[in-house]
Amino acid sequence: MFLKFFNIPKQITIHFISLFYYSNKFFYQKKIRSWHNTQCEQYILTHHPNLYNLIIKLRKVLRQKNDIKIWSDTKFLLNIYIHNKPQKTLELGSGISSIVFAYAANILKEKHSINSKIYSLEQNKSYLDTYILPYFPDYLKEYIDFNCTTLKNSNYKFGVGISYLKKDLQKYDLIYCDGPKINNKLNKLKKYNFFSKPFCSDLLDLYYNGLLQDCTVLIDQRYLTYLTLKRITLTNILKKKYFYLSRKFYLKY
Q: What is the DSSP code string of the chain?
C-alpha cells in the first residue's frame, strides 16, 4: 500500500507528460502537426505521386477524412525504410503503413537491388479482408505477407501486456509497432485508466528471445509501451529519440 502511494507523484508526472507533449488533445499540438502534415502531403505528391494516389484511394475506402498525421506518417515511414534498407521488417498492425513499406521495398529492389520483405500482423480479419487485401496493388504484394491472428494477455510484475498470439520469432532489421489495438472488451479486461492500461508486449517477446540486437524499433504513439520497453531494455538501447511532429518513438539496438 505504501509503495503504491509512493508511486503516485511519478504516475501523475508520466500522465501529464503524455497528455501535454505526446498526445494530440490540445489546439497547439493539432495546429503544429496539421501544418506539418500539409507540408508532407505536398512532398509525397511531388516526389511519390504513385504512392500518393494509392493512399488517397485507400483513405476513401476507409472513409478517412481529417487525419492530421497520415501524410506525416507516410513521409516518416518511407524515409526511415529507404534509409535503413531493411531486409526483414515486422509490422504490428496492418493498414496504410503496409502500403508505404511495400512501396519503399519496391524502391529498394529497383534502385539498390535489395530484396526486402514485410511480415504484417493484424488482429481484425474483417478489416484485413474487406479494406486492405482487396485494394492492395498487385505489384506490391510480393513484398509483404499478411497474417491475421488473435491476441493474448500476459501478466508481468510491472503490468499487463497484450500481444499477437501467433508471430514468427525471428531476427528483424526493422519493427514498426502500431498494434495490437487495445480494446477492453476484446481483451476481457475491466475498465482501466491511464495507469493500469495494458501495453503492447510483442517487443518484449522478441527481446527476451534475444531478437532485438541490431534492430531499429519504431513505436507509434504508444507511450506506455515505450516506457515499458525502455525500462526493460535500457542497457541495450544504442540510440533513442522522439519525433514530435510524427508522434513516433525511435529506438536503435
A: -HHHHHTHHHHHHHHHHIIIIIS--SHHHHHHHHHHHHHHHHHHHHH-HHHHHHHHHHHHHHT----TTHHHHHHHHHHHHHHH--SEEEEES-SHHHHHHHHHHHHHHHHH----EEEEEES-HHHIIIIIGGGS-GGGGGGEEEEE--EEEEEETTEEEEEESS------SEEEE--PPP-TTTTT-----TTT--EE-HHHHHHHTT--TT-EEEEES-HHHHHHHHHHHGGG-SEEEEETTTTEEEEE-
pLDDT higher than threshold 60 for residue 238: yes
Q: Which amino acid is at 158?
A: F
The answer to whether 203 touches 212, Cβ cutoff 8 Å, is yes
Q: Which of 11, 4, 105 is nearest to 51 (CA)?
A: 105
| Number of residues that this document lists for the chain | 253
- Residue 129, all three cell numbers: 479482408
- Its pTM stands at 0.86
pLDDT in tens, 78-87: 999 999 999 9
Q: Locate cell 495494458: which residue?
A: 198
pLDDT band at 126 (very low <50, low <70, confident <90, very high): very high
Residue 13 banded pLDDT, cuts 50, 70, 90: low
Please report where in the chains the cell 498526445 appears, as a residue.
23
